[in-house]
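To: structure subgroup
Subject: Chain for Friday's discussion

All,

I'm putting the inputs and outputs inline so they're searchable in the archive.
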Amino acid sequence: MQDTQTFLSSLTNSPGVYQMLGEQGEVIYVGKAKNLKKRVTSYFRPNLDVKTHALMKHVKDISIIVTHNESEALILECNLIKKNRPRYNVLFRDDKSYPYILITNEHPYPRIDFYRGQVKKNGLYFGPYPSAAAVRETIHLIQKVFQIRTCEDHFFQSRSRPCLHHQIGLCSGSCTGLISPEEYQQHVKLAILFLEGKNELIIDELKAHMEKAAQEKNYEAAARFRNQISKIREIQEKQYVSSAEGDADVIALISSAGVVCIQLLTIRGGRMLGSRSYTPTSPAEASHEEIVTAFITQHYLSQQVHDIPKQIILESKLADQALLTQALSDQAQRKVTLYANVRGDRKKWLEMATASAQQAVASQLLNKIHTKERFAALQALLELKETPHRIECFDISHTMGEETVASCVAFDSNGPIKNDYRRFNITGITPGDDVAAMHQAIIKRYQRKSTEEKKIPAILLIDGGLAQLHIAEKALAELEITTIRLIGVAKGVTRKPGYETLHMPGHEPLHLSPDSIALHLIQHIRDEAHRFAITGHRRRRDKKRTTSSLETIPGIGAKRRRDLLRHFGGIQGINRASLEDLAKVPGISLSLAQRIFEILHNVSV
């Protein structure tokens, strides 16, 4: 900005959003204003606070967007922060989607399922839940009490006898007609009431069914209803945080020694679904109010309408509380209330959230301290002049050479840098050749030309012995990288932790004491690389194994695959079918049937 006064005098008094731009034109801060002229002008006054002064030293330009009202500015600010991730704003991790429970409604026997993503499919959705574990636990409870199926429709249609879930009491055996559609729908109705928190209605209905069954001397059915009532009472005692119905999110914030944690407690129908910790990236001088406000806008304002609860409970009132209430209500298209300084049940919920946040902060601080101590111990062990700024580790995973995947994880003195984790699909090598796989992975990782991608570590750990270490040394030499300290981590004969051998070029093999905290750091990073590699390998392998052989046949799309599977009851039935049988399937011509038969049986007809 060459002429600050001219720029400020040209500003409007309307509401809107301003974006502070850095030296490269990147967005470094986004803010909203009820009056743009007053708000932006305040940044050019003397005696700025520390945070604002640090920001303004890097501001080279300011971009202005005028909005119709302050609520619109709030939503635009949230979207721009999520898009640009400015370093001077409080930033929360942007989880792309939240887990739901889905009950389908397009089948005579609806199923219950875990669902993540935008709500598009037909069906009833319940949530969002704070974690995938909370969803799976709830689904398991519903299976135990109401015996609703979880299997996919294609699995359901191919069954000729009940599966294991029926045998252990988690499913009613609807796939083989052991329960009528009408009776099954009654189970689904009760499951929906359970998810809505209307347990007393469920119990009243089950009592009526139990009494009717007893009067008709159907004692077996009466006993089933009695057991269901007993299970629901047991669940109420364990999971309900209040006898009154409640539909709320509870937000607590705790900060200590530079660690900030937001705890979100989710309550629906008086039942606590679970809680989740959020650790923001924020400027050191950010206030608690600024962090909580940023969490509310980033967590709720870009989500789907039914993701916003009726109540949001806070520790203290916010300056923008009225604006946030209006924006959330507009987004949800119903009344949303923010409560502060609460009593009764709401106060108990807030105390639970605060206690969870304190525990999360204490755990993070402990991990942070331990990690720094371990880095210092490794520095002393290797006689380095300074603490390693970054450590990376490679590992290889495959099943007898199938679908080989290499992983690379990164750590610094604060712990894992998960944004920098990478996986590499290994191709063009002899199956099972870990040495060749390691060479290919290192070349792929460090040959990147981009400065952003090429973050060279101080230490590179290789999971393996001398062969893997030598090939890593060769790969780095090919890339002309000479600043990395290489360490091969070979497991002992028993493969037990504490018996590793460390190999370093030009040094004798090193055996550390099992209680060495430097060794603990190496083990931690090595184990994380192994976990990341094996997860990627299993996902790739399972995807290949579950791919239908029909998908490789030209002219067979999703509809024809579905028709074939339904007609023959599965891929095994298709493999057993004759050419004439294939040609009888509606939509399958004789020439297409011949092509299917030839490819499946590797013959020429």
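Points worth raising on Friday:
The CA atoms of residues 250 and 313 lie 5 Å apart.
Residues 449-453 have pLDDT under 50 and may be disordered.

D.
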